[in-house]
């Protein structure tokens, strides 16, 4: 017996070692190019006679250059350095090379009508415009990373501090790097410093694309863990461990690409309306704190969305499998909009994300400008309650929860905002002692909607003495499959609605149904008739 | 015994006048009256009944199984009831009556399964305890599974809230039905306190004294299960009270079940009432009842243990 146990222990240990070995192995394999240009004087003679750069002109004309060809062109030398997304400043020194301007001249590509796609040996590419070639529109910083104004010149450098630049990838050595240099040695954002450049292509600028640098092939974003994450384009398969993020993917129109998510999204009545297949397609993968990594891997996603409050060990586990993980925070207004931009970039829907952010900002402006002039006394005391599903017990949002912000933005004072954390159970005595001016009822289930909860409250003798109930100032928050009070895409309608409930005189010309219709039409291609909304309409 | 009854009466009376909503008992308006009679009173009655019932269930099991660590969940009643509630929350979503009903039913089913299983395992109390542990573990696992699968925004918080135990929102309608099994359980065990004394001697001795052991054992387990199922159906899982109250009572009145049974009931009722008073008044948000019962119960037990040692030493 003891022997068998011993064998088992040995087996487990061996298995553990082998398994961890596998993970480490894949980590090494996924490492790309070495990160610093080396200034060693080791020979790169193999490259100096071979072709190191391909230029493609606007009409398809191709020009291949060797390192010697490059050295014959007008040279630019200057100082520079880069700042990584995590804030480290590195590779500061003197670079020597040929300016991008000189290079594209060779293929008659110097014009404001063109974009330039700079491709690296590993397939990563950046697209820049004419302004960039002139050194315009690039953030410059001093050696401590503080913003200063200044001019830099983009060059294709082959020399760093007097030694050759070399990047090794799959046994080959690449001698070119995109560097931003100046006399003063300004530091510039690291995402422009493309390593191991092999090709510059001149293309006609596509209409409506954003200015500055825009990436194709890969996009790089900074997520809410402050990590720079590179995601291969296009994204076709998505796993979202964060239910709110799934709802946002649908807002951006890519919901059908989500293959794995959480029950929040899978049971979301609104998602079921716009994507009837959701329950058959989506697999339950867990949560940001406890997802099944193997299930995630099996779905073979191009990207995984998780929450900033998720388990970092889990994120790292997924990353070792070569799947990029992007942590989002959708639980405050600012971070919601920031996350929307990040997600737009990752999904290649920057335009749509921009439109959505603009839409949200406009709506926020309408409401906050309307309520800005309110005096302290003009702000009603509001209580938001959620039915706990345990007979007659109610929950109210504590300080961490979004609902308090919603009430504040709409010009009210949330009486429960001092309570700790998230949902708190309160009894009717506490509600009587708060004695709020207005009560808002929410429910996350259409099987027991907020209107029904409101009815229960109004019929409960214990609530009769409470002023808001006596005066009939109790309102059921609309729910269209997603309640409008939490940071799902509809919170903006919730904000409109709350503002109108709290201040009907200020927002008399605000038509909630029209706004809802507008949102449905704009982002989901639906009209309000297609959607069942349960709740009070002020 | 009169002393303990008086102590409970004082706790009961004081409980009526503590709460988040403060008012003078001499000057009561409409809302004050509603709060007193429709909010506080049913809650106090419920806490008393549940405290007494859980304490008696604990005491019965401690006697039957001659195990001082036995609590109301020994035969898996609480776990079964919890699973019943969770099942109702998952499937039927919002129907508080169904949640309570299914919870009550599954509590009894769990005990029945444990009873039947003990026949497979072998007769005797040890077999029953082991079967109870297995049933309890099984239902706990099912609850864990349900929690894992539940919608985190909608159903999971409900389940967690339900499992933590709370008297928030208890009204007359909630206790109208379940007061019947609770009262039956409490009165039944009080009436059976004499056979309980004999059973606590062990099966052989009890048989020798002419007691129909299997009948009384079944009867007492049934009564205890009835009370615990009803308690869990009303207020969720309440820990500690059922385990510790009989010990406190034992230290107060000794081991004779004729005095111990009513004393346990009163101690359990008072203890749970005090805990619930704290849970509903200390902070604006209700504290989880299970946390309060443990925080309050543990020092009381230690204090009484220390006092008894003092008496013995003298």
Task: Label this structure with key terms.
heterodimer, A: 538 residues, alpha/beta, Sulfite Oxidase, Chain A, domain 2, Rossmann fold, 6-stranded mixed β-sheet, 27 strands, 33% helix, 24% strand, elongated, B: 314 residues, mainly alpha, ABC transporter involved in vitamin B12 uptake, BtuC, 13 helices, globular
Secondary structure: elements and pairs:
The complex is a heterodimer of chains A (538) and B (314).
Chain A: H1 2-30, H2 45-48, E1 51-56, E2 62-66, H3 67-72, E3 76-83, E4 89-99, H4 100-105, E5 114-120, E6 125-129, H5 130-133, E7 153-160, E8 163-164, E9 167-169, E10 172-174, E11 177-181, E12 187-189, E13 197-204, E14 214-216, E15 218-222, E16 228-232, E17 238-240, H6 243-251, E18 258-261, H7 263-266, H8 269-274, H9 278-281, E19 283-284, H10 293-299, E20 303-307, H11 312-320, E21 325-328, H12 333-346, H13 350-372, E22 381-387, E23 394-397, H14 402-409, E24 413-414, E25 423-426, H15 428-434, E26 438-442, H16 450-459, H17 467-470, E27 474-476, H18 491-502, H19 512-524
Chain B: H1 2-16, H2 30-64, H3 77-92, H4 96-121, H5 125-149, H6 155-164, H7 172-191, H8 193-199, H9 203-208, H10 213-235, H11 241-253, H12 257-281, H13 289-313
Helix pairs in contact in B: 1-12, 2-7, 2-10, 2-11, 2-12, 3-4, 3-5, 3-6, 3-10, 4-5, 4-10, 7-10, 8-12, 11-12, 11-13, 12-13
